[in-house]
Amino acid sequence: MALVVEDGTGLANAEAYAAVADFVDYYTKRGETTLAAKTVAEIEVALRKGADALDNFYRGRWKGVQTTTTQALSWPREGVVDDHEALEHDDDYVPPQIAKASIILAGKSFSADLQPDAERSGTIKREMKQVGPLQKEIEYTEGQDISNIYNSVDTLVRGLITTGSRTLLRA
Description:
Helix content: 25-40%
Structural class: alpha+beta
Strand order of the largest sheet: 1-2
Strand content: 5-15%
């Protein structure tokens, strides 16, 4: 099934903010030949993951409101002011930084799960059980830090969210 890229009209079936050619161009220009050489099918899957992650990371924090109630993705939006200026064509426009951020996340999806389920890390140090009013307390030792921060994405979308920046983490 061909990738459906948001064209700024609020498509009900949009799956991505960027096309395969945009992904290839972005990574080719940055010397990331391994990513640029992925198959079309692999890149389409990655672009879907990138758009999903971007929308989920900032859900409820995007400025403005969605253009239509039936659109599949968070963008396009109405009433968005970036750096004290209204975005040109804000009702039928997807800012280039949204497409770029989704491409970056798509590239990262080849080496990591962008939206993993949270898991408790570390080993059990102490466990208390109480049978009476059913109480259980578990204390874990410090686990390995398994998070990475997507600073490049956070920086790109900073002007499009309602409050400051958000640190994006992945496990």
